[in-house]
Design goal:
Number of strands: 0
Radius of gyration: 24 Å
Organism: Candidatus Portnoybacteria bacterium RBG_19FT_COMBO_36_7
Distance between the termini: 81 Å
Protein name: ISXO2-like transposase domain-containing protein
Strand content: under 5%
Largest sheet: none
Number of helices: 3
Length: about 100
């Protein structure tokens, strides 16, 4: 008997491999389960396992340790339309 790609999973290695291929192609689990004809909970579980392991690997190789705080800065893009006090169509509230 061959080893399973995913522990405690009754899916064949071929089906699990196809599901991994669909994950790489960014096919949602809800569509992949219908294509491969497996239970949606199995597909969602395997997608979760893949995401969990990717996150763990990323953390292992990350140059940062611990929590990282990000502020609410605005980067890039352009503001659309006029803004500020000089806007001619500004509605004054409370007058």
């Amino acid at each position: 008997m061959s080893k399973r790609l995913i522990k405690n999973c009754k899916l064949t290695n071929r089906r699990a491999g196809k599901l991994i291929d669909f994950f790489v192609l960014e096919v949602p689990a809800s569509k992949a389960d219908r294509i491969i004809r497996i239970n949606r909970h199995s597909a969602e579980r395997i997608y979760y396992i893949i995401r969990f392991n990717l996150a763990r690997e990323y953390e292992r190789h990350s140059p940062f340790k611990g929590e990282i705080e990000a502020d609410e800065s605005y980067f890039g893009g352009r503001r659309k339309g006029e803004r500020g006090r000089m806007v001619a169509t500004k509605v004054l509230l409370g007058t």
